[in-house]
Amino acid sequence: MGWKGILTGVALLAATGATVTGCAAYREAQAEEDNPPIGRILDVDGHPVHAWVKGSGPDVVLIHGSSGNLRDFTHSFAGRLTDRYRVIAFDRPGLGYTPEMAPGGDSMKAQAALLQKAAAQLGANRPIVVGQSLGGAVALAWATYTPDTLAALVTISGVSHPWTTPLSTYYKVLSNPVGQHTVVPLMTAFVPESTIEASIKSIFDPFPVPDGYADYVGARLTLRRASLRANADQRARLLSDVKTQSQLYGSAITVPVEVVHGTEDSTVGPELHVPQMERDVPQTRVTLIAGAGHMPHHTHPDPVVAAIDSAAARAGLR
Q1: What are the chain's domains?
Q2: Which residues form the AB hydrolase-1 domain (predicted)?
């Protein structure tokens, strides 16, 4: 191939790259226009944190899981609590409207520290901390590393202990520098609605997706380039973080703990995480919801609310 051919190839690659970048930027702008912040943006030591606050009573902090944002909780679940609690839902770093703190994936400990400071800024000095899925690992980090800054802990389908299955190919690719510069922009630009719908459906199996959830939750916010990278980086480091913090649970966690898990959760298996929480944290009370999958706060909200009420009572808040 002569210089003319080489230059032609370079020009085509540049044009393709520009097209992908332009399409990705358009998709990101559209996602943010369709799903603007629904709370306030706090300044926490110079870092923006998106917070939604509603209700009155003892403070409850809600921490969402992987690939999500605070809208997962505000869709319907938070409304079941606001009659007797002041409910605070946060976007975790890298997702929704809270930007990542540092390149390479924010640790569970760093995320917990940021959200604890955000809660304190709102006057929630010892809230009940509720975390779902990966948010459960962040809630556990909060209880482990700053145990005097919460009144009780509730995990919903929570990641608590190490596992042996390897990181999925999806996260291996998206947490790899090459994948982050090539695959991520392509996903932002071209992932179709049908793929988003199938992904949402999979996390609710074996139950249907709640009415209006797919339109409300703003899934395309997670498909923004920065969020895809941050989410993948966090997932890639999750096992290491959990290995470290789980060794400290028994000596560090002193508050009442409620663990809620669906028996049919195929994403975060109850057979692994629940018994080890009971072993390592003796004050753990377990609610196993027969037949429930990974999203019981949507499909079986009553026992989840009951666990939060129990945590409040055990902490002397009700």
Answers
A1: 33-314 (3.40.50.1820)
A2: 60-301
